[in-house]
Amino acid sequence: MLTLADLGILRRVEIDGEGTVQVWITPTYSGCPALAEMRVDVDRAVRAAGFGAVEVRTELSPAWTTDWITDEGRRKLAEHGISPPGAAPRRAAGPVPLTLLPTRTAPRCPLCRSADTEELSRFGATSCKSLHRCRSCLEPFEHVKEI
Predict the structure, then answer these.
(1) Which fold is adopted by the domain 1-80?
(2) DSSP one-letter string for 73-91
(3) H helix or E strand, kind and range, residue 131
(4) Residues 70 and 5: beta-carbon distance below 8 Å
(5) Is 104 in contact with 81 (CB distance < 8 Å)?
(6) What angle do CA 128, 12, 30 make, to 5 degrees?
(7) DSSP code of 8?
(8) Rounded Cα distance, 1 and 66, in Å
(9) What are the sequence ranges of the domains in the chain?
(10) How many CB atoms lie within 10 A of CB 124?
């Protein structure tokens, strides 16, 4: 349903002088368990497009942010019942401040668009999503956390 480009994970693609396709990806977070699978999928897709030599590189800086998700990616998430993230928190340059209180978002229901939702669990199927329920239509849904 989503491509790595939709999610902003695909950073750039180049072909070097020897014909090797070099692909840079930035995972959603450095410990993302899907990183190995993403690398395999990118390699497979480039080879299926007719290229023989592929190098998939991981680029951790700058760190990925949910702001990199494209409008198309946000639309696809919502169409498939996953609440897309809002704007990522803005920080000044320098160290990231530590806050001991949880940050809470009130995402809109991707099905009926109601803002009357409640968080059921801070973690959904993956660490980057939380589980919510709409109080209007009573449907559960996942929300991609703002990073």
Answers:
(1) GMP Synthetase; Chain A, domain 3 (3.30.300)
(2) HHHHHHHTTEEPP-PPPP-
(3) strand 129-134
(4) yes
(5) no
(6) 30
(7) T
(8) 17
(9) 1-80, 105-147
(10) 19
Helix (H, G, I), strand (E, B) or coil at 57: strand
pLDDT tens digits in sequence order for the chain, 147 residues long: 899 999 999 999 999 999 999 999 999 887 888 899 999 999 999 999 999 999 999 999 998 989 999 999 999 999 999 999 987 766 667 666 666 666 666 899 999 999 999 999 988 888 788 999 999 999 999 999 887
- Order the strands of the 82-83 sheet from edge to edge: 82-83, 140-144, 129-134, 117-121
As a whole number of Å, the end-to-end CA separation of the chain is 21
Coil/strand/helix, residue 72: helix
Question: For residue range 84-106, what is the model confidence (pLDDT) as tens digits?
Answer: 998 776 666 766 666 666 666 68
What's the whole-model pTM score? Answer: 0.78
The conformation of residue 102, written as its DSSP 8-state character, comes to P
Q: What is the CB-side half-sphere exposure of residue 33 using CA atoms within 13 A?
A: 4
Helix (H) or strand (E) holding 39, with range, is: helix 35-48
